[in-house]
Amino acid sequence: MNSDKLTQDAFLKAQKKIYNLKIFYIHLVGYLILAALLGYNLYIMSGPYKDFFFWFNIIVLVAWTVFISIHGWYVFKGKILFKKDWEARKIKAFLEKEKINRWE
């Protein structure tokens, strides 16, 4: 009975992590689309209100970059790209690969 509860809790926790990851990727795609559109808008901009819209576009890009960075930090917290054991695992994998490819 207790193990079922632990299994269910682990499943719900994993489900929440996957949901947060999915939402982050949707947010990232939206950010990339908006950044492309605002970049194009900066490229073709002309007219009497050019200065206002230039700064407005820059402020939107900077603000959304900050927000998506915070969202990414929340989703990927604790996941560092190169952890301490990463180098040891890569060396071990390389040595295993070399061991297989030798002509002994």
SSE order: HHH
Distance between the termini: 54 Å
Low-confidence stretches: none
Based on CA atoms alone, the radius of gyration comes out at 23 Å
Helix content: over 70%
Number of strand segments: 0
Number of helices: 3
- What's the rounded overall pLDDT mean? 84
Largest sheet: none
Strand content: under 5%
The geometry reads as flat
Class by SSE composition: mainly alpha
Structure overview:
- This protein has helices at 2-44, 50-75, 84-101.
- The chain is flat, with a radius of gyration of 23 Å.
- It has 104 residues and is mainly alpha-helical.
Give keywords.
104 residues, mainly alpha
In short:
Residues 13-95 form the 2TM domain. The protein has 104 residues and is mainly α.
Question: How does the SSE layout of this entry go?
Answer:
Blueprint: H1 2-44, H2 50-75, H3 84-101
Helix pairs in contact: 1-2
